[in-house]
Amino acid sequence: MEITTALWSFALVVGLLTLTPGLDTALVLRTSALGRRHRAWGVVLGIQTGTLIWGALTSLGVTALLTASHVAYETLRWAGAAYLLWMGGRMIVDTWRGRAEGAAGSDGAAGDDGLALAGKDTVAGGWQQGTLTNLLNPKVGVFYVAVLPQFIPAGAPHFTMGLLLTSVHILLGLVWSLALISFARVLRTWLQQPRARRVLDRVTGTVVAAFGLRLALSD
């Protein structure tokens, strides 16, 4: 397999994976739709940082431990499930807390901060959330262990080629995230309404918690 052929083939596989609605899409869309554009880009950069780390570790052969060691995989799986359940549960609980605070306030503005949950609109905060979400998902590591080596041509340097393939995945992720953030701007007017923001947080929180539960119950 030629390097060019490997890159295009890998781009097709990870492109379809990127377009499939999932946890990353939900986090980016929700954060951006709430008007926290800096934090949304932080989430995007964090997710891609995690992808880069998984790709680099796979290229070095380190993440093969996830498939060789049951204990290593189980530890990371339960840590990831607990984090996602906590994050999703917090989103849902904060919508009720914010609603109560808003009702107690004179103009309902008190509930806005409670609904924001995404935290301050900073790139650093979003980056931390995106990185943790990606690195605590062992299925990303297993995917790279299973798929990445298949696209490394015979005779090509594993580490360099692995990083090149990972860069293709990151580039596609950035392009898709740009589309999501641009689309989310259309929703901002609707999301100025507290009720709409509560609905978005509850839906996203449910999706995140569902991913955590699925990870916990997965074999």
From TrEMBL:
Keyword tags: Cell membrane, Membrane, Transmembrane, Transmembrane helix
Membrane topology: Multi-pass membrane protein
Subcellular location: Cell membrane
Domain of life: Bacteria
Entries under InterPro entries matching the protein: LeuE-type
Pfam family, one: LysE
Cellular component terms per the entry's GO annotation: plasma membrane
Single GO MF annotation: amino acid transmembrane transporter activity
Coiled coil: none
Transmembrane segments: 6-29, 41-68, 163-187
The name this protein goes by in its record: LysE family translocator
Source organism: Streptomyces paludis
Taxonomic lineage from the root: Bacteria, Bacillati, Actinomycetota, Actinomycetes, Kitasatosporales
